[in-house]
Hints:
The structure holds two protein chains of two kinds.
Chain A: E1 9-18, E2 21-31, E3 36-40, H1 47-55, E4 62-67, E5 79-82, H2 96-101, H3 114-126, H4 142-154, E6 160-164, H5 172-185, E7 190-194, H6 198-203, E8 207-212, E9 214-217, H7 225-232, E10 238-239, E11 246-247
Parallel strand pairs in A: 3-7, 3-8, 5-6, 6-7
Antiparallel strand pairs in A: 1-2, 1-4, 8-9, 10-11
Chain B: H1 2-7, H2 9-34, H3 38-58, H4 62-83, H5 88-109, H6 117-122, H7 130-149, H8 151-159, H9 161-167, H10 171-209, H11 216-245, H12 251-273
Amino acid sequence: MSEARTPVLQLEGVSLSLRGRLVLEDIDWTLHGGEFIGLIGPNGAGKTILLKIILGLLDPDVGTVRVEGRSPREARGRIAYVPQYAVFDREFPVQVLDVVLMGRLGPGFRGLRSADHDRAFAALRSVDLTHLARRQIGRLSGGELQRVLIARALVQDAPLILLDEPDASLDTRIGGALYDLLGRVAERSTVIVVTHDVGVIDRHVTSVACLNRRLHYHGTAELTQEMIEATYGKGVDVLEHPHSHRLLADHPGHGP
Amino acid sequence: MIGEALEYAFFQRALAAALLASVTGGVVGSLVVVRRMASVSGGLAHAAFGGVGLGYLMGFSPVLGATGFALLAGLGLGLAQRRLATGMDTLISILWALGMALGMLFVALSPGYAPDLMSYLFGSLLFVPGSYLIYLLGLNAVILILVTALFRQLRAAAFDEEYSRVVGLPVRFLDLLQLFLVALAVVALMRVTGVILVIALLTIPATAARPWADSLGRMMVLAVAIGATCSVAGLFAAYALGDRFGAQVPTGPLIVVLSVMALGISFLANRIRR
Lengths: 256, 274
C-alpha cells in the first residue's frame, strides 16, 4: 500500500497579531521535502516571525503548524536554525568549536562523542573556519561569526533548515560560496532562506516565497511582477546591479 | 608564624573550609557571572537567613534550615521566572528582605540567645566546626558532579537560550538546576563570608578571572584559584593581626576586601595588556 509522504512542513490558516498589529494572516504552506526556498519580503513583513512560529519559539493565534507531522515542540532538534542576529553575549567565554557543538546537543542530556567532534570539524571546514576552531567568539569578525552560526545549524543534520538573512554580513564572494553550500545541503534537507538578494533567487533557489503578512508561493523560482507587487506594492521593480539584484523597496527613502 | 598557625586544628579546619568554599565560589560563581545572576544570588543568600532563624527557633541545625530555605526560594524564583516577564527584580528584593526579616524574627522568638548568629551574618572561618566541613565536602561533591555531568547543557542554556530551545534542550529544567546550584553554593559559602557577603565570593573571583579566560572551564579554574588565594591570604592575615596586635579582625570582610583588590589588579593588568 502506498501512502502519501508526510510533508516536511505544513502550515494551515496560521495568523498572528503582535501588539495589536496583524503580522501574519492566514498562511497555508506545504513543503514536501527537497525544496530550496528563498523567502523574500519587505522589512517588517513577518519573515522572522514566520520562522519562529515554525521553530515553535512563538505560537500562532490561530492555525496549525506541523513539522514532519508533529508539533514544532515535538519536532525540536529536527529543525536547524540560523538566527538573523546573534542574540547572545559576544564576550561569553566560549570557543568557536564549542558553539558549533551546541548543534549536536539535543533533547535529554546525552554527552558528545568523538563522532560529534568530527561532524563539527566537517561543518567548520565547509564554511572555511577550521583555523578558528579554538578562538573565543568575541574575537571574530561579523562575517566569521555568521559562518559559525551556519556551521552550528549544519551539524544538526536536520531535515528542515531555516536561515534568517545568513548573507547579511558576508561579502559577495563568501555569500556566493554559502549559497553553493546550501545548494548541496538542499540535496538532503529542505532549506528556507530569508534573503533580500534577488540575485540569489535567480541563481540558486528552486522556489521562491514572498511574504508580506500573507504568503505568496507557487513552488517555482520565477519571481513574477505580480508577486512583487503583491508583496512590495505597485511601482517596485527588481533593481539591476552587477553583483546583486536588490529590491528597491529595501532601501528606505526610495520606496514607491 | 605560618607554621605555628597550621598546627592548630581550628586553623586547619578554617583552611580546608576556605579552599572548599573557593571551589564552589569559582565554579558556580562563573556561571552566575556569565548568566548575570548576581542579584538572584544575593536574594537566595538572604532568603537562606530565614532558614537559619527557623533552625534556632525549632532547635534544628541552622545550616540545614538555610539549605531548605535557599532551595525553596530558588524553586519559587524558577517557577515565577516564566510567569513574570517583568518585575523579577522586585520579586528578588522581596525575597531578599523577607528572608532577613523572618530570620531576625525567628531568632528573637527563640529561647535564650543565638550563639553563632554573627557567624551566619558575616562568616567566621576560624570557628568552623568539623561537622560543617563534612557538609561542605558533600555540597562541593554534589555541585561538581552536576556541573561536570551537565556542563555543555548548562553552558548552552546560559549562552544562547533561544537556540538551546531550538535543539530541544530542556531549558526550563536547566534554569531550575542553575538556581539550585546557586542555592547550594550560597549555603556552602555562608560560613566563610556570611549571608550578607556571600554574593562577593560568587561574583568577584569569577569577574576577575573572566578577562583571562577564553572558555568557561578555564574561567572556572582561574576563579577557583583567585578565590582560594584571597581566602587563604585573608585567613592568614586575620590570624596574624590577632596574633601580633590582638586585633579581632573578622575573616569574611577581610577576604572580600582582598578579593576586590585582586579584581582591581586583574582589570588593570588587562587594561595594560590591551
